[in-house]
Design a protein that fits this description.
This protein has 219 residues and is an alpha/beta fold. It has two domains: 144 residues, Rossmann fold (3-Layer(aba) Sandwich); 59 residues. 26% of the residues lie in helices and 26% in strands. The protein contains six helices and ten strands. A six-stranded mixed sheet has the order 6-7-8-3-9-10, sandwiched between helices. A hairpin with a 2-residue loop joins strand 1 and strand 2. Helix 3 packs across helix 4. The structure holds adenosine-5'-triphosphate. This is Cytochrome c biogenesis heme-transporting ATPase CcmA. It comes from Corallincola platygyrae. Keywords: ATP-binding, Cytochrome c-type biogenesis, Membrane, Nucleotide-binding, Translocase, Transport.
Length: 219
Amino acid sequence: MLEARDLCCIRDDRLLFQSLNLTIAPGELLQVEGPNGAGKTSLLRILACLATPQAGQLLFEGSLVSDDREGYLANMLYLGHKPGIKQELTPLENLEFYQRVSPVTDQLSAWELLTLVGLAGYEDMPAGKLSAGQQRRTALARLWQSSAKLWILDEPFTSLDKQGVAGLQKRFAEHLATGGAIIMTTHQELQMEAENVRRLRLGQTLASAEPVEAVEVVA
Ligand SMILES: Nc1ncnc2c1ncn2[C@@H]1O[C@H](COP(=O)(O)OP(=O)(O)OP(=O)(O)O)[C@@H](O)[C@H]1O
């Protein structure tokens, strides 16, 4: 589904990675691992077209993303490590906003989504007054309505309780089972079918000032 070729990323004169190649096929989850500062977020932002690499190319379903950026963005959903919700709007208004601006399945109403992610009863409260976990749930509700094939998720489990983590992993499994793909970072252990999950390790250590030239792919 997505292929990255020869990516290079330099931040503040520091080489985070180079010659980085990855592919992800329908039904696969790619977990990007590495210590703090290794470049996981930087990589995800490149894959989501939010940052430009110093070198390299992205191909989506065999075509260069640079040739049809809009087409790629219509098939990709990125959720960053911050919830990215509108603080002054209620959770319900946030979900209605998402439904207007991004491709969605029409199976569930905003209200049904809100109930699904455990926020019934909080629909009238400005999102900025919700707890960190409730704000995360509001942002993640998009995963129950998005028709995007590829999800790129930066630390999606942050602030979620056990039930939230389990519900999200169930949603991941559904997405993979219907031919979707997921690229994500998490410091948590995933409880998912091992054959669907591959890991990509960015190999820089906190102690090392030297850049790492290649990444190790762990099966
Ligand atoms: N906009 C930026 N300008 C300059 N340097 C940046 C920028 N964004 C990130 N960096 C640097 O790039 C390096 C990698 O950051 P990044 O957020 O990609 O790491 P990470 O692996 O996601 O870390 P963490 O596990 O802590 O989230 C860090 O040293 C960071 O300071």
